[in-house]
Amino acid sequence: MKGFHIGLRRLCSVLLGLVFFIAGMLKLMDPVGSGLVVEEYLEFFHVGGLAFAAKWIGVILALVETLTGAALIAGVWRRQVAAITSILTLGFTFLTLLLVIFNPEMDCGCFGEAVHLTHMQTFLKNLFLCLLCAGAFLPVRDYGRTRKSKAIAFCLVAVTVILFTVMSLISVPLMDFTEFAPGASLAADADEEFVDSGISLGGENDTKQEYYVIYEKNGQEGAFTLDNLPDSTWTFVRVENLETSISDYEQSVPVFYISDSDGNYHNELLTEGKVMVLSIYDVPGFKDMARAEQLLRDAEAAGFTALAVAREPVPGLDAYMSDFKKIITFNRSNGGATYLADGEIICKWPLRKLPDAEELSKVASRNPMEQLVGRSSRRRIAFQGVVLYSLALLLIL
What we know:
Layout: H1 2-29, H2 31-44, H3 54-74, H4 78-102, H5 119-137, H6 148-170, H7 193-196, E1 207-217, E2 220-224, E3 235-245, E4 274-280, H8 289-301, E5 305-310, E6 320-321, H9 324-330, E7 336-341, E8 344-349, H10 357-365, H11 368-396
């Protein structure tokens, strides 16, 4: 009986740790998005004056959540970790109960942009975590000692998580779950979104054009969508443009509105040919004007239509205007670059890694779809590799 209880306690701890670790890593991958969620919570509690620190509050909370999850999985310092986990879980549960009661128009942000839950779903999820806490920590005795190998595993994972956080702070998310993720097709106009997405309306056999990526494994070919690519054991073969039924199409094509200084919209500029967009969502905080101007010049020379987009006029830069939420979703980096081909988002760069003239020439000369597939696959595999490496250390060592 005692062995069964120990096994149950360990199982509950691991399940609880997995939820904490994965949720925390998803938020650490997108610190800007985490800051936006925290900012909504601050507004909800009428302390919007702390919005200047929202990003760092989000990062610290996500880091605590991730490391707590790692400690639960490893089984280290169990008494202290049990106290921290219980406080966090009860706090999250109370918070989501308030969301259920007052029902504000906001997302809980539990899993970043990857998974969106209703307030009730979030509350029920936290009640389940409370049950796992009870199974993992009650009765409050016989927690046992920390094995040295587990402490080493936790420390290695902690270093990995911190390095991952630093990388996320200076880059764009390895995996983008927003409406403007690589692979998304922009509409030139809200009234023309279905036309610009390749959808023909008005017949019994309404269809849309959609890209499929063909991979090969063991002599067999398979067709995959851009948001559901196979693992690294498959070999890329080609990209095909196939027709699919409109009944299978989710009628939600994102529109990125841009306007000139006179208020005239020019969304069609984003859907014609190869476009390089430099986006600035925080003009007062942007201090790299020389780098921005250099990117726009190099992009024009490489054959791109180079556009600057900001939430307000930028001194010394001819920029189009757009909504703050649109710009910060379009590219998480303040001053980041985004490459579009015929309205389809291909890839993004953060301000610190803007492409130079040589790289822009290479990008312009290559097939956009191959770049999209290759870059998205590498970034997805990199994130999955970090997560799997960490979990392997925590569970095996």
